[in-house]
Design brief:
With 238 residues, the chain is α/β, with parallel strands linked by helices. The strands form 2 sheets. A 6-stranded mixed β-sheet has the order 6-7-8-3-9-10, with helices on both faces. A 4-stranded antiparallel β-sheet has the order 2-1-4-5, with helices on one face. Helix 3 packs across helix 4, helix 4 packs across helix 5 and helix 5 runs parallel beside helix 6. The protein is globular. The structure holds adenosine-5'-diphosphate (ADP) and magnesium ion. The site of adenosine-5'-diphosphate has 10 residues, from helix 1.
Length: 238
C-alpha cells in the first residue's frame, strides 16, 4: 500500500530523515516510535505529500507521489493531528461533511447520512450540532477521526493523536483507533502510547536521528530490543 524507497529529507542542509526504506502493507498497523525530534512527523508528512522528499521516492498504491498527483493521491490518506485542527466556526456535522461535499461533490443528504454513521462509530451521535469549543479534547479528536474517515481513505495516518489530551481522555481515542484497526484499515501511527503500540501494532518502526534503527514486531521490540539506542529509549519511557 505504501512503499518508501531511500527517502531522505533535509531542511536547509540539516538532515532530518536519512535513507529510509520500508513498505507498509494493506491492512497493516505500523507504530512509529522514537525520541522527540527524531523525524517521526516529517516521515508521516512525507507519506501524504505534505513534505517533498529531498531524495528518494514514496509510492502509494504503486503510484509515485509527485507534485502533479499529490492532491489526488493525498485523498487516499486521512490524517489526524495532535491538535485536532477542526474548523472552529463549523458544527461537528459540518466539519465532517465539508470535505466530501466540496471535493467529492457528495450531496448534502448523503454526506450527512454518512457523517451520522461515523459519529455513531466514534460514540458522538449526540454531538452533531455542537461546535468544537463545546467538546472535550477526547471528543474533538474523535470528531477529527470521523472527519478523516468521511473521505473514505485507504490509509489513516496519526501523528501523536493522544499527546495533547488529558490522561482520562486518552483511552476513548485509543479505543476508536483500535476498533478502526480491527476493521482492516491500513494505519501508520506515531505514538508515545507504548502499551497501545504493543497491543495494536503489527510492526514497530523505531526512528532515531532520522534513521530506522529497528523495524520489528512489538513482541521483539519491547522484550528484546536489539540496539542500544532502542534499549535506552525504552528505559526512559517504560
Ligand atoms: P518528531 O516528530 O520525531 O519530534 P520532527 O519530524 O517534527 O520530529 O522533526 C525532526 C527534526 O526536523 C527536528 O529537528 C525539527 O526541528 C526539524 N524540522 C521539522 N520540520 C522542519 C521545518 N519545516 N523546517 C526546519 N526544520 C524542521
Ligand atoms: Mg512530531
Amino acid at each position: 500500500m505504501i512503499k518508501v524507497n531511500q527517502l531522505s529529507k533535509t531542511f536547509k542542509k540539516t538532515p532530518v530523515l536519512n535513507n529510509i526504506t520500508t513498505e507498509i502493507n494493506k491492512k497493516e498497523v505500523v507504530a512509529v516510535i522514537g525520541p522527540s525530534g527524531s523525524g517521526k512527523s516529517t516521515f508521516l508528512r512525507c507519506l501524504n505529500g505534505l513534505e517533498q522528499p529531498s531524495e528518494g521516492q514514496v509510492y502509494i498504491d504503486g503510484t509515485q507521489l509527485n507534485e502533479q498527483n499529490v492532491t489526488q493521491i493525498r485523498e487516499k490518506t486521512g490524517m489526524v493531528f495532535q491538535h485536532f485542527h477542526l474548523f472552529p466556526h463549523m458544527t461537528v456535522l459540518q466539519n465532517i461533511t465539508f470535505a466530501p461535499m466540496e471535493t467529492h461533490g457528495t450531496s448534502k443528504e448523503e454526506a450527512e447520512e454518512n457523517a451520522m454513521k461515523l459519529l455513531e462509530t466514534v460514540g458522538l451521535s449526540d454531538k452533531a450540532t455542537s461546535y468544537p469549543n463545546q467538546l472535550s479534547g477526547g471528543q474533538k479528536q474523535r470528531v477529527a477521526i470521523a472527519r478523516a474517515l468521511a473521505m473514505h481513505p485507504e490509509i489513516m495516518l496519526f501523528d501523536e493523536p493522544t499527546s495533547a489530551l488529558d490522561p482520562e481522555m486518552v483511552k476513548e481515542v485509543l479505543d476508536v483507533m483500535k476498533q478502526l484497526a480491527s476493521t482492516g484499515m491500513t494505519m501508520v501511527i506515531v505514538t508515545h502510547e507504548m502499551a497501545f503500540a504493543r497491543e495494536v501494532a503489527d510492526r514497530i518502526i523505531f526512528l532515531d536521528q532520522g534513521a530506522v534503527v529497528e523495524e520489528t514486531t512489538p513482541l521483539q521490540f519491547f522484550n528484546t530490543p536489539s540496539t542500544e539506542r532502542a534499549q535506552s529509549f525504552l528505559q526512559k519511557v517504560l
